[in-house]
Design a protein that fits this description.
The protein has one domain: Divalent-metal-dependent TIM barrel enzymes (TIM Barrel, Alpha-Beta Barrel), CATH 3.20.20. It is 49% helix and 14% strand. The protein has seven helices and six strands; from the N terminus they run ααβββαβααβαβα. Strands 3-4-5-6 form a four-stranded parallel beta sheet, with helices on one face. The chain has a two-stranded antiparallel sheet with strand order 1-2. A hairpin with a 2-residue loop joins strand 1 and strand 2. Helix 5 runs parallel beside helix 6 and helix 6 packs across helix 7. The chain is globular and about 40 Å long. The termini are far apart.
Length: 150
């Protein structure tokens, strides 16, 4: 039986050793990385360690590695009140580990308030990413558009 770690090692076994030695999993211009959701059974710190172990240096950060666990209302309260400095510290931890953060995954739900939608864009800005990825419904997509245009 193979573990996810074994499969991860196999997945990057073809990467040139020189690229991995530099902490760069870009091969001939192609970024090889993972969404941190792939490591959802681990804390963010352990996900970072796992990515370093298998030689991946590009990450799309999943919101589950940013937000605390809790009830719907507890998470909503956190989203609306967390200082942006706390979010910037996450980016600093990734930078220190040699992980290049290129996107933030923040999946908008129908029950999100407008303030929560706006905070998703603020989180992406605080993380210093160019791309915000999401899953959502058609109805929530219509609500996102005005915030994306800002």
């Amino acid at each position: 039986m193979h573990t996810r770690r074994d499969l991860g090692k196999l997945a990057v076994a073809w990467l040139p050793a020189a690229a991995l030695a530099r902490g760069n999993s870009k091969v001939r211009g192609v970024m090889i990385g993972a969404q941190s959701y792939s490591f959802r059974d681990r804390s963010l710190e352990d996900a970072i360690k796992a990515m370093n172990e298998i030689g991946l240096s590009y990450m799309e950060l999943w919101q589950g590695h940013v937000e605390p666990r809790g009830s719907r209302e507890e998470v909503r309260k956190w989203r609306l009140s967390v200082p942006m400095e706390d979010i910037r510290k996450i980016r600093a931890r990734l930078d220190a580990a040699g992980i290049h953060l290129y996107a933030y995954n923040y999946s908008f739900r129908d029950d999100f308030s407008d303030a929560e939608i706006e905070r998703g864009f603020e989180f992406a800005h605080a993380l210093g990413v160019k791309y915000l990825t999401a899953s959502g419904t058609v109805s929530v997509a219509k609500r996102i558009s005005p915030f994306a245009e800002k």
